[in-house]
Amino acid sequence: MADCSLDLLGSSNPLSHLSLLSSWDHRRVPPCPALQGTPLSATLSLVMSQCCQKIKDTVQKLASDHKDIHSSVSRVGKAIDRNFDSEICGVVSDAVWDAREQQQQILQMAIVEHLYQQGMLSVAEELCQESTLNVDLDFKQPFLELNRILEALHEQDLGPALEWAVSHRQRLLELNSSLEFKLHRMHFIRLLAGGPEKQLEALSYARHFQPFARLHQREIQVMMGSLVYLRLGLEKSPYCHLLDNSHWAEICETFTRDACSLLGLSVESPLSVSFASGCVALPVLMNIKAVIEQRQCTGVWSHKDELPIEIELGMKCWYHSVFACPILRQQTSDSNPPIKLICGHVISRDALNKLINGGKLKCPYCPMEQNPADGKRIIF
Ligand SMILES: [Zn+2]
Question: What residue stretches are annotated with the RING-Gid-type domain (predicted)?
Fold first, then answer.
């Protein structure tokens, strides 16, 4: 192809293409002796030259397209080199990888928990065996149950999830969960999809909605309305959205969220949260490392249990409120908790202790004098 295109591009005489084509023909079909040496008619010559021009244009276009793609592809390699630092280890203290047994067990436990949460039960079991990690059956049980029900839901089997939701009804209601209603609704919709012969069954199943009448009145009205179109077929009615497959994904999501919060588990495993946070923090840490090295102040970051600066991880990683003392500009902690003064202003205990003068405290915001012992600890 490359040789042929070069030849075509290199010549402007249409007849030279003809010789090229005829030499190509020779290899397959024996030439007809009667036509050899016969000059081409004017029309044929024109058609041939037009054809050759077309081929030439196409090849030129291909060549320029290829050039474009090649330049983009070659840029990918450079982008990878630029964005991936081969020395990521530099931001992690070597001590982290020290094979202290306790640390290793914590890491293994986090991996096992993640695998259980992802439903990879056999891999988790294997890891437990190989690392001689002893996992309590009580620890495993919630994950096993969760995965059994989720697997059934993925196969569009509502039975186990309904059973679970009914047995946990009270606690689900306390959570303001609509899981049980959504499961009953899905069962009802499946009956509707069965056509007129399922009408009686659907009507009798509708009594399951009774406990949810107040909270889900609108949705129940929609389902009752859809009964009118049962004979015509739900898929041809204005209610065809009820048959949408996205309802299954929604149910799986609701079940995972509510069951996790009922079982005291986080929706995402601690390992995946740590990993995601690490991915956000890593570029910042790499920059800090570069700055520290440039200014030759390597002692600044000791790698102990803290980071050299605060790194913003986004709202998703906010788990609780924090309070920073307006006087000392430090985040409060258990040893230095926030204290509310009687005037209503809040400062940290360390700041309060520093402001005491002659057994009295003058609020730094309003000049109210007060007894330091009147301050009350605030818990967020
Ligand atoms: Zn005050």
Answer: 325-366
Residue 364 Cα, ligand 1 centroid: separation in angstroms?
6
Centroid of ligand 1 to alpha carbon of 335 (angstroms)? 23
Structural domain range at position 335: 322-377
Percent of the chain residues topping a pLDDT of 90: 13
**Strands, sheet with 338-340, edge to edge from the N-terminal-most edge strand:** 346-348, 338-340, 376-377
Q: How far is the CA of 334 from the centre of ligand 1 (A)?
A: 23
Q: How many domains does the chain have?
A: 2
For residue 336, report the distance from its CA to the centre of ligand 1, in Å: 19
Instruction: Please give the distance, rounded to the nearest whole angstrom, from the Cα atom of residue 346 to the centre of ligand 1.
Output: 8
Split at pLDDT 50, 70, 90, the class of 61 is very high
Provide the token pair at 365: 């915001």
Does this model's pTM top 0.70? My answer is no
How does strand 369-370 pair with strand 356-357?
Answer: unpaired
Report the separation in Å between the CA atom of 361 and the middle of ligand 1, taken as the mean of its atom positions.
10
The predicted pLDDT at position 300 comes to 62
Q: What is the CATH number of the domain that holds 343?
A: 3.30.40.10
From first CA to last CA, the distance across the chain in angstroms is 73
Whether 332 and 213 map to the same domain: the answer is: no
